[in-house]
Design brief:
The chain is of the alpha/beta class. The protein has helices spanning 167-176, 183-193, 198-210, and strands at 19-20, 30-32, 37-38, 47-48, 58-60, 65-66, 71-73, 111-113, 118-119, 124-125, 130-131, 136-137, 142-143, 151-154, 159-163. Strand 14 (151-154) and strand 15 (159-163) form a beta hairpin. Helix 1 (167-176) crosses helix 3. The radius of gyration is 20 Å and the shape is globular. The two termini are 29 Å apart.
């Protein structure tokens, strides 16, 4: 019997530094879906300035592809900006200063990455960004604002290059939500998922959704 893909293994490509992220996570404020991989080791080291007392979370969906040296910068990197100085006296020894309440800090909230998102090498994701399903982030990009589903963004700051598909196909893919299906059904869907005939894909998804 053919083995099923196992989201609990750490290295799904023997001999290569590709890591399924979910089974490696130790921090409670990082949540990652099945089969999302990182092209490297120690994904958690790529999530920086992430302090539990801030309460912000990094949430990443299923089947994401995260290239080497991507960095997720979290809210702990921010300094108070509504004061005369941005210098954090309160965290450095031998300086007087009270830690400001979180309500006084420029908190951006959780960072959320959808499903089937491809993040290129050396990209930086800033605090509180939301990246939609199926988006592509170009290498070396700095993403400081939300990214729509199935969009391609590139640059510093990252700007929209184009939508990957027309609105109809994007809506169909978001209705299909193939990443939430059992692995056996995903196997059946692979010919559709790797097809480059967009009209044929639309027709096949419509048929599935109507059946």
């Amino acid at each position: 019997m053919k083995k099923k893909p196992d989201p609990t293994v750490t290295h799904p490509v023997p001999g290569f530094p590709v890591t399924y992220v979910k089974p490696t996570i130790t921090r409670p404020n990082i949540i990652v879906g099945d089969f999302t991989y990182y092209s490297g080791e120690d994904f958690e080291s790529r999530v920086t300035h992430h302090y539990e007392f801030y309460g912000d979370r990094l949430i990443i969906g299923k089947f994401c592809q995260i290239a080497a040296d991507v960095e997720f910068i979290m809210n702990g990197a921010n300094h108070q900006m509504n004061t005369a100085s941005t210098f954090p006296f309160y965290i450095l020894e031998h300086w007087n200063g009270l830690q400001p309440p979180l309500s006084e800090m420029p908190m951006k909230g959780d960072t959320i990455v959808g499903n089937d998102v491809w993040i290129g090498q050396n990209a930086t994701i800033l605090p509180g960004v939301r990246i939609g399903d199926g988006a592509i982030i170009g290498m070396n990009s700095v993403v400081g604002s939300d990214v729509e589903p199935y969009s391609i963004v590139v640059g510093n700051p990252a700007k929209l290059v184009r939508k990957r598909f027309d609105d109809e196909l994007i809506a169909l893919l978001q209705s299909l939500r193939w990443w939430d299906k059992p692995t056996d059904e995903i196997h059946e869907l692979i010919p559709l998922l790797i097809d480059n005939n967009l009209e044929r894909i639309k027709s096949a998804i419509r048929e599935r959704l109507e059946s």
